Every structure is written in C-alpha cells, then in structure tokens.
Input
Amino acid sequence: MKKTIIIILLSILAITALYPSVCAADAGVRIDQELITISPTNTGLLVEKTIQVTNSGTENATTLRFWIQQDIQDAVKITELQSGKELTPVITGNIRTCNLSASNLSMTPDSSLTLQITYHLPSNAENFIQTLLYDTTLLSVTYENKDLFQGEHLLYGADANNQIQILLYKPTEAPLNITMIIIIFLSVIIVFAVLLLLLKKQRSKTKKAVAESEETLTTKKTLLLSLLKDLEKQYRAKSISDETYTKIKDEYKQDAVEVMKKLDDLKK
Output
C-alpha cells in the first residue's frame, strides 16, 4: 500500500515537473495574422488558412498547435511556405500539434514562420468555427471574396470562451454558375425573338388594314366623282328638277370631301 502511494506521488511530481516544459514549447507564440478563405468546390467547401506566427518569448518555440473543425472531409495539410516542408501533426480531438524541431523549424525568439493549412468542409456546412489557441493580432474570414469576419487584437484566455462561430453564405446565395448564366441568356434571347415576331405580325396586320382602307376610300372617291358627272349630265338634259339636282349634288359633294380628307390623313 505504501509503495502504491509512493508511486502515485512520484508520478504526480513527474507530471508537475514536465507540464511547464510542455507548455513552454509554444508559450511565446503569437499569431500576427490569420487569413482564412472559404470557397465552394466540387468536393466541398475548401478552407485555406495562411498564418503568420512569431515567437515573442525568450525561449525557442518547438511546437505549434492548430484548432480544426471536427466535420472535415479529408486530411488536413499543413505546410511551412518558406521551406515548403509539410508538417505531420499529432491529432488530439480538434487540436493538431506539430513538432517544429522534428522538421528543423524551431522558432528562436523574435523569429517568424508562415504556414498554410488546407482542408475541406462538407458542401452543406452552414457555420465555420474557429477557436483561438494564441493571442491573435488579426483574424479575417472571407467566403467567395465576401468578408464574413474580421477581428483585431484577439486575446487567448484559458478561462475564456475562445471560440468564434461564423454563419456561412448558403450555396443558394452564391453567385450564379456559368450554366445558369447561359440558360438565363438563352431564355432572354428566346423571349426577345418571340416579341419581335409578334410585333412584326402586328405591323403586317396594321399595314394590310391601312392598305384595304385606302383602296376602299379610293374606290368611293372614284364612284362619287362618277356619280357627280352623271348627275350633271342629267341636269343639263333637264331630266331632273333644279331642286332635286341641288339636293343630290350637295350630298355627293359632302361625301366626296369626307372621303378625300380620310385619304389625306392616311397618307400623312
């Protein structure tokens, strides 16, 4: 029993002694900027993070930790951009821990690294979640060139809620793809062509109606002038009385004047 208690105490002392060194591995790390872009692809929502980190501490930083959403669809790729080295993380829940010293990338005091992290979220994901693990000077999130979030001087706190949840634009709100643009363009052309055809038919009917009216009025005019000549002959032959001649002549003249006026209006 005493041996068991002694072993437990020694274990606690060992963990207590080692814990500060584990924490000190990235104790001085500060994120200068983390630029996150999200864009829809055929395989889901592509998340690309460009992170610039600085060791603001007094000792070498030998590890870096990154928080990743749980519902990712593929492996997380972490690359140090200057050297092109791909880091292999140790996965603990949502945390990816990278051993910098294993890749000869340990950060001396005041030195910096730029890393890129890529992975895919499901295409129907409605929220993007980011949890702070370090003090962050600038954090921005964009979706298809639209700014969703921008925060400055974000401080990490062990007792604070360091999670940021951002509502993404749903795929239905994304810009139209090229197929939809072509369909809309063709639909507009078809509608325009139908309207032109209907307008052409309407103009053709109008012209035909005008032509028929002009032909009818011309015939009436010829007929009335002929009737006036016949009336004049009958009157000279004294076949009709003065009263009848005057009455019929006035009626024919009035009709002829109206017909000629209508013809003039059509020609204008």
